[in-house]
Amino acid sequence: MIFYRANYPSGKLNWHIIQAVSLVAISYEILSGKGGVKAWTYHYNITPNMNWDTARQWCRDHFTDMVAIQNQKEIKYLNDVLPSNPNYYWIGIRKINDRWTWVGTNKTLKKEAENWAPGEPNNKGRAQDCVEIYIKRSSHASKWNDERCTRQKGALCFQASCTASSCTAWGECIETIGNYTCDCYPGFKGPRCEYAMECENLHPPHHGTMNCSHLFGPFQFNSSCDFGCNQGFVMAGSGLLQCQASGQWTTDSPTCQAVKCNALNTPKRAILNCTHPLEDNSFNSTCEIGCEKGFSLSGPNRLQCTARGQWIGQMPTCKAVKCEALSIPSHGSMDCAHPIEKFSYNSGCWFGCKEGFLLNGTNSTQCTSQGRWSAQTPACQAVKCEALSIPSHGSMDCKHPIEKFSYNSGCWFGCKEGFLLNGTNSTQCTSQGRWSAQTPACQALKCQSLKTPIRGVMNCSHPFGDYRFNSSCEMGCEEGFIMRGSDILQCNASGLWTEPLPTCQGEKGSCRPRRRGGVLETTNPSSSFAVRRSWGGQETCSHCSSFAAGDRGEVRRPAPHCSTLKCQSLKTPIRGVMNCSHPFGDYRFNSSCEMGCEEGFIMRGSDILQCNASGLWTEPLPTCQVVECPPLPISSAVEMNCSHPIGYFSFLSSCYFSCAEGSKLNGTNRLHCTSDGQWTGTIPSCAAQVMSTGMALLLYTGVGSGAAVLLLLLGGFVFLIVKRLARQSKEISILMNSAVLEECANPAYDGI
Ligand SMILES: *[C@@H]1O[C@H](CO)[C@@H](O)[C@H](O)[C@H]1NC(C)=O
Ligand SMILES: *[C@@H]1O[C@H](CO)[C@@H](O)[C@H](O)[C@H]1NC(C)=O
Ligand SMILES: *[C@@H]1O[C@H](CO)[C@@H](O)[C@H](O)[C@H]1NC(C)=O
Ligand SMILES: *[C@@H]1O[C@H](CO)[C@@H](O)[C@H](O)[C@H]1NC(C)=O
Ligand SMILES: *[C@@H]1O[C@H](CO)[C@@H](O)[C@H](O)[C@H]1NC(C)=O
Ligand SMILES: *[C@@H]1O[C@H](CO)[C@@H](O)[C@H](O)[C@H]1NC(C)=O
Ligand SMILES: *[C@@H]1O[C@H](CO)[C@@H](O)[C@H](O)[C@H]1NC(C)=O
Ligand SMILES: *[C@@H]1O[C@H](CO)[C@@H](O)[C@H](O)[C@H]1NC(C)=O
Ligand SMILES: *[C@@H]1O[C@H](CO)[C@@H](O)[C@H](O)[C@H]1NC(C)=O
Ligand SMILES: *[C@@H]1O[C@H](CO)[C@@H](O)[C@H](O)[C@H]1NC(C)=O
Ligand SMILES: *[C@@H]1O[C@H](CO)[C@@H](O)[C@H](O)[C@H]1NC(C)=O
Ligand SMILES: *[C@@H]1O[C@H](CO)[C@@H](O)[C@H](O)[C@H]1NC(C)=O
Description:
four-stranded antiparallel β-sheet; Complement Module, domain 1; cell adhesion; Mannose-Binding Protein A, Chain A
């Protein structure tokens, strides 16, 4: 229980424990029952009574000070134990500066501690600046009253228990009744306040540091701790903690939290694999970045959250893996789908070929995640047709616009001489790989089949088939028969036999009529044995008797009544000559006539005519036409007088030239047309002649009379000639006969 509270700085107060000599010391031993606490003791002196100042001095000289009372228990105690004193006792309160003040502590009296007797303090009679306590008064016992300080009253003192070493500097020594107690300052404890308050031990935070300063002891009152965080961490909470008087830290310990980075947005098609050693997306978090299948990373593959809360490195992107760009195969088509990007992962292309082409390879390809195509671009290959070979005995000409014997190839066929194409002459390779037509064959031309002649034998070789081109048949006759015709027949390139089929004819007298092989053999009763046979549509007539017996194969004259066919009789052409041979009679089969022309005539037509088996001449009768000379020009300078016995300016035409009187002919006066068609010379000219009048006249008359005789003579001739010429020209235009030729060739005519 505390009654009095005082501050005694150490060394300031020197307590003298003075024993009361003649005084009664009263010990207040309230706490004695609690184990012998040294008592705060009260002491009084009423012999003599003293004024307030003397009383206080006495207290201070012998004890600690004048008593200071602050509670009712103490008042009651004093009232009980102190002897009654009619003047009562002084206590340690005095008015200083008009304030009631505890003199021991120099503290103002507080209202709640007042214990005035009713009506007091009244300051009755003025200067009542000191206080007395009514000990054992009949009324208002133990109450206070203000009194003049000079009054004589009992001294009431106390002896304190506190000494300089009672408490440490960290507490106040407080007097108790009979003992003291240490009232510790905040932050201290212990009986002597020798201990500072303890706060709980602190530890450096995770990822942080702590630097503490300890004024009194580790983690004790007024210890302060400074906190820090490692790089990459930020502090949550206060960075400075102090241990308070209450034994509590000012705040909780801070924590160090990893610096945060922004949460990452996973880019498209990317896969993040993050490790967060500390906290999500915080310092030291690392993210490995990969891409989905078929995508490749563009940028760093790792991001790290730095101590400053930023990711190192730019967020990469995932790009579709690229495949090489494809091009359309030639003769083909390509159709691509690009779900992501052009020619990239998962792009697919489908291929097709144009008509006539086939795909070699797969019809589709895909871009794999490795950036390669699953299959190569196929090729469009031309559809193949079976290779053709040249037909035997033929030729083949092929054109291959694309590939050999492939789509659109075309072949044209031909045959060698003697062979004919059987089939189409061309074929084409279709888009189905088939030829539009089969290869044709070259077939040898066929000749008529031959039958063995009656009484004959035949031995044929057929290199290209029966009775076809180059088949050759050798003929023979039975004994007693002779052959008429060629003994070897060959089938030529035109499909015709080179020779007619021969016959075997019996030797004279040995022919016998009979039937053989369905071929009619007839007998002619009027003659010997006659054989009449149909052969090749032609009738051949022969008679046994017409052949003289002779060596086999020797052909004699034919029988007279087996007449050969007759051709028209020929007449020698006018001005021509003819020389004929008639093996079977005049102008009959195989008669041959050679033609020629007289001099000065040329032939128009063939010079040989033959009577063929049909009774016709192989050529028409030729004509002999007169040779023509170039016509001579008519000129005024020279008089020209021509005669044309055969034709105009033709062979035997002749021209005479003369000049007018007074001029002389220079050159020949006559030209005639030769059998070569040439004139005998060139046209003459007239040159003027100089002569005397007499000479001229003489000449004129001489010449004139001569001319008159000549003219007369000429006139007769001319008449004759003209008359004949007229007849002649008529004949020339129709036919030329030898008579005219004789006349024309008359030398007399020539000589004029
Ligand atoms: C006085 O108090 C102190 C400390 O409280 C104690 O150690 C001591 O024994 C007490 N003395 C008596 C006489 O009770
Ligand atoms: C006591 O207090 C007053 C004012 O409060 C002061 O003037 C005086 O000097 C003090 N005396 C002592 C002894 O401390
Ligand atoms: C602790 O703090 C004191 C005073 O502030 C300073 O001198 C000392 O260097 C610090 N120690 C550490 C380890 O930070
Ligand atoms: C405790 O520390 C505060 C501030 O550092 C200081 O003002 C105060 O005097 C200290 N208390 C003691 C008892 O040292
Ligand atoms: C993520 O990365 C760790 C360590 O690098 C590895 O062990 C783990 O397999 C990865 N996880 C995936 C899904 O890739
Ligand atoms: C952060 O990472 C670095 C290197 O990987 C390592 O040395 C360091 O200890 C890590 N820090 C923490 C706090 O984990
Ligand atoms: C397809 O092409 C390959 C390579 O060019 C070739 O070897 C093969 O013969 C061709 N196949 C056909 C069916 O033409
Ligand atoms: C591609 O070829 C496959 C077999 O190889 C076939 O089944 C499919 O129909 C073909 N596709 C086209 C578009 O031709
Ligand atoms: C062509 O050949 C075919 C078959 O070989 C045959 O039947 C036909 O008669 C021949 N045509 C001719 C004109 O030979
Ligand atoms: C092929 O035959 C056709 C008629 O069948 C004909 O018009 C064409 O001229 C022939 N071509 C040749 C080269 O013979
Ligand atoms: C037919 O002719 C061939 C060759 O010329 C010959 O070998 C063969 O014996 C002949 N046959 C007859 C029946 O004469
Ligand atoms: C046909 O026969 C002739 C002569 O015998 C010969 O020269 C020719 O080569 C033959 N023709 C063929 C296609 O055999």
